[in-house]
Amino acid sequence: NGLVAIATTPIVVGNNRPSVTIDWPPAGGFANLGETVEYRILVTDKEDGSVPWEKVIFQPFLGHDTHAHPLKQYRGFAGSFVTLLDDGHGQGTDLFTVIEASYGDQGGNNTRSLTGRHKVVLQPKRKQSEYFKESSDIRVEKTEDDEGGENVVFQKDGAFVSYSPMNFTGIEAVTLRVACDTDDTTLELRLDERNGKKLGEFHVPSTSELFLTEGLHPIRIEFFERGGGAGLIFRMKGGGKAKHIVPESSLVHGDDQSPGLHADYYELGSLGALPDFSALTPYKSDVLPRIEFPSTQEEFATSGRSEDVGVVFTGYLKIPSAGAYTLTLDSDDGSKLYLSDKLIVENDGLHGMVEKSSSWKWIDLTLPISDPGGTHDLFVVFHPKAGEEDAQLKLNWIDFQGQGVASTETKETEPHHDPPEKSTQSGS
User: Which residue, among 176, 178, 179, 185, has the nearest Cα to 203 in the 3D structure?
Assistant: First the structure.
């Protein structure tokens, strides 16, 4: 169509860019904030020949999300530095260490100077699960774990998250902080792809703490919708059954155990969270056989309203046999579930259809590993037990245990000016 685009690239003739390599530590090595790490740099330049140490620059950075803050700068081929400890970003932040080596040559044949660079990322020894590189069939949610932050929820067979770069030099074991709603679930650690070389696997037991006795359990479900769609679905799993909509036979109210739950409807203002319903007066009451209301722009249940509406369901949950159960609320907007006056599911706030389940016990599982060599992408892959396709597993964080790339020194040392012994090139 007669349009033109122009890109300009300077071409330097008569001078080659220096080759700069961070020989140690390796890309993806593990070092916690506050640890001492030694470094070695290899530099060659065709025109300069011998490289003056004072022009070799080593620069550490504190990595934070998608950017990095520069720290103290060093000169020389080798030395050590202390990764920043007091970051001021708060617990659970995506923090890591970035190091860069550079050398600007003296030019050649009357041409301008060229700079060679090499950058390496070092991982913290505790990786928060939500800071992944790639993912499939997962969701991220605010964790119910006492240790806080967010967790990843694996939702179907083959779901994964990956982390990169990772080098297992000096790492002897891996610990996962997990919670699971079914037995015999597997988490695989694989290298470079979902079906790549297996580094190891965890067999995760059910960690459900919700053990219910046979009989009736007082239940209360609170829900509100501000606008943009209203929905609420109540599911359960246990007693030998997969996750399913709680049926009418399991929901009763009154002394005569009539089927269904009692529902009190409330007219609300533009709220951002569930109100104190005890201070409000319902404008309508009803009995509903089950709570199965997908999100809709139309009337919610039998409330006569599509927005700024609240409802409190009360009655009993009838459990046919004692055992471990999982209760789930999927709501748009916020909801809470109380069992015998104890908060079991917290799904409050403004959001679309979001599923939250009864609190699980969090456990730490440790697996010894051996260094496979090299730098890799680490894939954490989920496989539920056969016949448990609706199983879910939550991952809060991963700990990498061992010395990693940290040195045994406790203080920062002066850089060494001499080239490392392993280099035989005069320009190193």
Answer: 185
